[in-house]
Protein 1
Amino acid sequence: GGGMSDDEDRRSLSEDEDGEIEDGGAVDAIGGEEGGADGASVDGELERDRLEMLARLDAKASMEELMMQRAEELDYHASDMYNDDDDSYGGAPVEVDEYEPVEYQVATREPSSLAQIYGDGASAGVELKPELARGLKLHGVHELVTWTCTDGVGMPPRWAFVRNKPLVSCVLLVCAPGVDHARASTAAELTPNVKKRLGTGVPTWFDNPTATEVNILKALLFSVPAGGDGEPRRGGVARSRANDGDKKGATAGAAGDAKGPYGSTDARDLLRRIGDGPFPPEHYLLSAADMAEMDYPIPTLVPTRDTAGDDDDTAGDDDAAGDDAAGVGRKRRRDDAGHEGSTSRALALPEGYVVTQPAGGGVARHPPLTMCAMDCEMCYVGMGADERLELTRCSVVGPDGSVIYDKLVKPAEPITNYNTAHSGITEEQMRGVTTTLEDVQRELLELVACETIVVGHSLENDLKRLRLIHARCVDTVALYPHQRGPPYRTKLAHLTERYLARKIQEGSHDSVADARATLELAMLKFVFGPGFGQRPAAGASLFETLAANGTACHAIGPQITMRECASSGVARSKTTASDEATAVTAAEWIAELHSKKKKTSQSDGDGDGKGFLVFAHLRGYHRHLDESNKRWAEHTGQARAAEEYASIRAAAENGRSDAARDATPKGDGENGEPDGGIAIEAGDGYCDVEEGIAADAALMDLDERVRQLWDAMPENGMLILCTGAGDTARARTAQERKWKRSRGLGPWGPWTDEAEEE
């Protein structure tokens, strides 16, 4: 479009310097006369075409003649300037005396600083748009971060507007799980700093209401879409096909291996390959916090009376300092006479439990067994509210998968339900069995030393039935977590079929087969590394995306956060033990990084240094919710309810008001005192009012940390506070109890509509 017609082309070529049309007028006249005759015969049309062609040839000859006359004046041939086959302009350059050459100068301009572009008084800002944030999911928060910290990555978020984005000096992303939108709205007076500095937030949605902190953090930090569809896509992080849990990908990576996609999965072969793994087996041990979270049997702290610290106050202070350094709590109290004494806490085993011992230091053998896998089968004893599972079989396999212990166990009470479908135990098998739980404990203490790594699937259930406490545990539930997080767990049969290419637990269970499968699953992790069997994250890492686009990322938080979420893409990370330490470190880093940014800007002369991101995980409020939920679960839990079931029911029937007094735990001494001689105060139990006060205090502490971080922010710094989800710990416990009550388990009674509403 926009080109000239043939007639227009002829006019332009035949136009003289005065702008008058010469021979081209005849062409137009001829074309106009012939073209205007309507209804002409065929011969007339042919005659018209012939005359038009002659006119074109005459016009071309006239043009060539005219151009040759001009060319003679300039002393070069017109044929060089005009070619029938080529309309290009050729020949020697024209040299005319009256034309002087023009010199063109290209002036280079120094890059303007941001102050010159936006003005000295300009500042950055962000405006949230609640009307456009409806349905905003947690993973969508990355849109604001990536849009602010990078150039050309992603699209601007619909729910937020960043004013003068290039002026943003840095971004501080704070994740503080546990505060849902309703809590933030009703407790606004407890968070004046958040209200004053950050205003009213917008609600975000999270798909998993029973998620742990790690699940929430991963949803936030592994959220950058890997594709161009605008939504997070699974598999966004590129990983080695050999370490992928996908059977097809792994098969492609090991094509032609007749023993399976990962080589031989026999325990004897895997044992020889453990040394090739990226980490030793000790790397996969559960931490003390992990064991507490998964409800493993662990020693408890009990109060003991300190009788040596009252005479010498100085010595008492020194002892207290030493206790704090060693992690032993100590509290002051006044006795009945008004004298201030002190109490300390010591580790104690639950009743009936035994703990593994050092090799050669007790009954444990020397040298110790390096590794073993354990699985137990249980049957039901008791009736009604007292129905519970008890140990009926214990199997242990060694590092090579061979059976080193396998015995049936006779419970202390008669078996009421053999649970054959899940235990594989029948009445015929149990006839004549005389081995007791105490016999198994004694034999296991000889076989398993405290240095031995014990592998299991949901191992806490086996250790509870064995009444055995062991510190060095590897649990395949933690090695292969469910994609929805706790309380969901992937079945051992599914893991075995997927990664070991065989089926177990068909028809009934076999503890030896289960223990061997658990051992081989753990060894696959040891050989191929932590990434083996992990489901791809919902999206690419936010840290890796920003780092790839030139934004330095820094992360601060608890150890589990650094290990699970900040292992790559982070220029610097630091593990902290408290929210206060996290806030102090973040403030120091921001001041240091901003100072470096200003120096870089001044040296470059453009007034624009490179921005940076600091991520901080504040877990104090979520930790309070978790601990409060544990106290509530213990207060209303299955074990306590089973113990007090009869008395509470009798109290309700008789109208007595002393049910709470009967439910209060008492010791062996007088007036409910334990053996240590210290009275348990009424406030030591669970109380809704006290828990509410503690929750308010934890929320106020979070508000103070936000103020501390805000005060440390430089000019034009952006602070984003994201809480992720609400009280997921309570939701997790409620979900577990719903499952039990719907199946008639536990002393709470059947699941009702009222319980569902609650």
Protein 2
Amino acid sequence: LSDKVLFFTLSARFKTRELEGLGMEIKKEAFNKNAGRAKKRVVPMVILDDVTSSPAQEAIKRLLANREIKNGESGLTRIKPNDLILLATCNPDPVQDDVFPLSAEMREVKVDVENLDSNLRRRFIEERLNDKDYGLMIANKETVKKAVLLIETASFSNEQRSSLIGCVSLRDAVRCISLAKKALYHWPNTDEGSIFEKLSIADLAVEKELKALGLSCYICFGIRTIPRANFFKRVRTIVGIDLQPFIHSFQDAILNELAMPANVVKTEALKENLTVSVICLALRHPLLLLGCDGTSKTLSLSMAISQMQGKFSKSTFLQGIARMQSFNIQLSEATSASHIAKIKNTVLEWKSKLSVPCIFMEELSMAKAGSTGPLRALHDLLDAHQNMAGALSRHEVGSGSNAFAYVATSNYRPGTKEIPIGRALANRMIILAHPDPSKADLKSLAVKVGMNEIKVQTPDETSKNHERVEEMIGEAVERLSRLVPRTVSVRSLLSFARCLGKQLSMGNDEFQSCLLGATCHLQKINPEETKKVLRAAVGSKAPLEIPGVTARLESLLGLHGAKRPILFLYQSVGDIYSIVRHVREATKAVMDKLKDDGVQKVTSICPCSSRKLSEEIQSQEMENLSPERLYALLNLKSSIEAGSTTFILNPEPMLQGMHALLNDFDQSYSTIQINECNENLCINPSAQIVLLVHWESALSFHNALLSRTAVMNLEMFAQSRLRAWENPYSKLLDHYSNQRS
């Protein structure tokens, strides 16, 4: 038997042609090992890892079960059974692991490997702790026992597993020990000392190895436990170590090294995000931030990456960490596996020694599933460091020798607290799973956002208004908190708080201010659900007199309110005509009130006027945009930069490319995805986006997309007898539409 093992990791990029080429490589290796060795024949061993991640299951079946490289050419391309030992590994469950199912022939030759029993698992952890190259080399036997107990309690105990998000494997234990070693001896690079010394953190009253393991257990297991109190309680009860005060002091120390903008609220979610982001970026551990919108996922990663500037960082602690060069990609249904493959090639070919490339993927849950989906290529991306020469990452993932860093954000699977990606992929990342925001966090965050909208006044007026407005915003948010995040998204709640802050600071009535803010920012597609939200917002049984169209549009266009992209749900052609007319009139009124002498610019975009054709385009598995959608996105880019009011009729074909723009609409810069590139654009403060969507189409929209817009449901006007669309033109167009259909 050869003393070397050939190890190949398969992925979504391995199609039939690549598998046949791999088979030829394997056969050539077997031939070379046996050539000229009549007396002593050496048999090589080949392992194919993650074979179910490849879509070419027929080619894999021929290679492994039949020892055949090419179909129909068995005489020339067979690998003889005694030429080599050929093994394969895989995650077998197509649903839970998000992999391709094994063929019937492969299921006949498979061997199911059960999980290690507790004794073998304990022995594995102990051996790893004492490994001279990758372990902590703990001399005291009692400390070793306590370290093993700490890891088992944090990860593999039955009570802990029940509250963990995602699955746990021995890979997590290896990652935990590796991280503890880096934190204790080699932070962030070889022979550079302890992270605790660099941050000047007060000692935990335990051995230094247990302190480092306590931190790594929190990062690998604690941040996946919901609620967090369960993790700290089990460690305190079973192991006898009170980690919670130590972890809180560690979070505060990390936050002290970062420049925090004045308008950012330091919630528990933000503290956890920033702490784990800095550590994972420094060690290049793949990281996934998981939670509902409003848990500061994107904000935290953007803050951490922007401030990690190597020697140019403002913090001495951050100066010892490599500079991060971000490569952002907003995932959507239009993103394909080839997008991920091209980003992988870009970061692996990165030549700069001054910075480290960092792949930043947003909204994994919005990516399309299936054989061409981008998540199929993530296995190959996250295992790319295994091919790097000199990297020790096969044994020490996240050692800092990786060629790039990887961070991602995602929402939970709709209606659950489950990870929206397969177990095998999730197990390659450190996962920070957020619980739903607490009522206290929601209240403090919304009050802070609302108070930021109050204009500067005299000291006496400021103190009086602050107390009054703060109290009113807090009461309104408290009434709505029971609907967050299932019915009302956190992002929409914060927009409501901004609008309420502006209205109340002007001395407006509390009831009318709450009603205006709620009808602008908290509307749902279902009118009955909207009524329930409005009633909770105003907190009164008084009749709900829906504010007029003009008042609502002026608020959403930035006058005494929070400016957001508007999503109009129309029912007929007449509605479209009247929507455009009212938005133009409201825009002109806002410009007059703001004394803007500029010319109102209007752009109309219709990426695909036929809804049927739109559905056909979406159903095609195309890597590039159709010419119509490409032109529409380029037109959108130019209109936003020019400050136009942009109407997009039936925007479904181009929504995938504008997710980031809708999310960043209140910022100065954003991106739109055109083909496989992210185009930068400057957002003109005068620009506005109005999406005109048929209400039936809106029912299939992703919740993350709906939370980025202010929904305007015309059915609410009809039910409140305030529908402003009745005019001869709309009736005529409705009649024409009915006759034509």
Protein 3
Amino acid sequence: LWLAKACGAADKTARGRALEVIALVLERLIGEDGAEVDEQVWTALSDAVVPRVHDKVAGVRRAACLALRRLQEDNQPATHALGRALARDSSAEVRAAAARALDPSKKTVGLLLDRCRDVNATVRKAAFDALRLKVGLRGVPRDRRAPVLARGLRDRDAAVRASATMTLARWFVSPKVGADATKLLELLDVESQASHAALALRALHAAACALANDDRREATPAWLRGEAEPETCAETRRRDAFDASFYYDAVDEDGQNSYVVALESALEVADREDTLLLQKKEGAEFKKRDPASLRLRNALLPSNDEESCLPENASTLTPAAALWLRCRVLLELEPSAARLTPSNLEDALAKFSDGDDLARLCSTAGEQAAQEEMKHRENDGESENSDDDEDLSFARTFVAAQVLDCARLLVDHKAIDEAGKVRVADAIDGDFVRTQKPLAECLAAPAARCLAVARGLGAGFTEDGASLHAAVESALNRGETRRALAVAAQLLAEPRCFAPPRSAAQDRFLEEICDGDDALVPRCSISPDADDRELAVLALGRRMLLGDANDSKRIAPHLWRFALNSREGLDVRGRAVCALGDAALAFGCAKCAPDESDFATSLAKLLDEGTAAPLRAVAAEGAAKLLLAGRPLSVDDAETQEARVGASLLRAFLACENDNDEDDDDDDMAAALGGKRRLQQVLSVFFPTLASTRPVSVSRSIETALDDASTPQQAASYVASLPGQQFAAPYA
């Protein structure tokens, strides 16, 4: 009771120390001895501690959160105070203490999940630690499990990534999951969160490699040791940075890997907790299990003595099992190709090298996807071009997509011999491209990618009936125009299919699909169906990048007609703008101009306030790339045109700052193209970068913007805050 009174002392040090002592006493009494506290003392402590969560001193608030850890039982004010501190407190140390102290429930677990994306790394780590220690996988809402884990595994802070991995490993070895990869994927809602679920498996595989400490890992690359500059692109560097957190040895001064030590410790705690739980549940029938670390290694690092990993047919594959199969190929071949010793790599390849099994798996996957698609259309009475989101055949379609990706990876990594490649190619050609059976449209792209690799990419364009061109023509002759168009568009997206020097067969394909007056893509670009037009615009954009400046000059006016047509759908217009921006980066804006105007003037029209937010975001992103690259936007008076576009970008950015209406970000088009939020994110990075690299360009943009009465008043203030732009201060 004396400590309870001390919590209200005038001196902040006294208040904080009293709260810390209360926390230590309660932790010792309740945590270790299981002692009970007198009800009068309990009430007095609670009444004294809860108001301190709102103290003006952050250190006192932190101590109050720690003291409330053992005062939450049947105490709604204490739980509410901790939840409020976790969600709203301005101090990171208070939010972290609240995350460690809060007892999660169905009502409060959402607060912990929100803090997994806190701006402070300490708070994010505390939130993941709390999830690991207090919340099971089933205690997290199904739709938030995979996204939260993926965010933690990709976190920029190594400690947060390690905590997220330990949380994932704890859930994986729990009795509810039982170290079963398929079961984990089912609980992560694999059908709607496939990419996040695959990342979780990759992190578990990395954790298993670290625990095994075997020869699957190589020495840390020189660029990660700071001894050389990275030679890879940004996306690859991000992937390598992920690998560096897990796959590579990071030994401290004592010769220990702190990540492995922490992971082993977390799994030992999991072993003790699960053993106590199972002993109570099973009683005399309890049998001791293998250690959690061993079960994790056995599940993610199968023995190389395993004969074959390919199932006999796709009927035995659930969506989770299909994704696990694809991830096994990725984990054992693609990322490990540079890490496995030659003998281990040979053993890994042998488990997937049967071409007959792989061809049969592809055929059965296609047949089952077609059967369910047909049954779905019969039940719904919808047309073959249905775009119903509630597709009953999605599960089998998902399985087929995973099988196709798995086959492509195996063929591309030369795990399949030449005879097997032919059988796989024939199976995909017959069951996914040339078939008259109905198939979901989303299967056309993975089927085309796999078929191209299996036919040998550029070598697949021949003069016989097995060529890639013949497959597209066959689908077209069977009345499957949409499928033929989708396959052709995907082939155009594979640069290896058209690597120079091009053969006569490749040129004939381009002429009959894209370049000719009566070619497939131009015909579909004037189709009354918006989906056909979108695919056609996508194909035209890819054709521009495959060609040269002359091809770009020929195709660009056609794409500008789509981009500037206000009666066209936003998805079609967005595709056209993206294609024009990419081509302008590659060949220059002068080669991508419309017939009756120049590139800069047409781009400025798309940046006007009257343009829909999703399309404006796409145009702004393209313009930002061009300005950062220093591409002239016009042949005549390039500086003036650049200033006009820069001023338009500045007005668009400041309009987003002043607009709190998020309605445009809620529709499907904004989700696909990016709305006001995406526009704000792009330009908030663009302007500081441009001011650092090309300050003169920003200066011209602000001068042009200030001459326009529609420019928001804070434009000069914002520009004055950028590096090297102090000239704008007098205007502000």
